[in-house]
Design goal:
Length: 93
């Protein structure tokens, strides 16, 4: 019988030095790199979505189209200030 050769030969035991992955070392490393890249991409997407002015959350900074039309009418002089303020209060702006 030869000493040092067999199913559990060497310092790493039956795992072959891959830290318990049993031969999945390179594939396991690739999987972790992909997972890390996906996490980084998700964080970048979230930060851009929160800071880009055109991609705000649905209710943030939303204006009523009726309020826009009312302001245009007031700016053109079609309605007086009192009527403008009354209708603006009615719209909720």
């Amino acid at each position: 019988m030869m000493w040092g050769y067999g199913p559990n030969w060497g310092m790493m035991g039956p795992w072959g030095g891959y830290g318990g992955y049993g031969g999945w070392g390179p594939i396991g490393m690739i999987i972790w790199i992909v997972v890390l890249a996906l996490i980084i991409a998700a964080v970048v997407w979230f930060v851009r979505a929160m800071t880009h002015p055109g991609h705000q959350l649905p209710m943030a900074g939303r204006r009523s189209p009726g309020l826009d039309a009312l302001e245009e009418r007031y700016a053109r002089g079609e309605i007086k200030r009192d009527e403008y303020l009354e209708k603006k209060r009615d719209i909720g702006g």
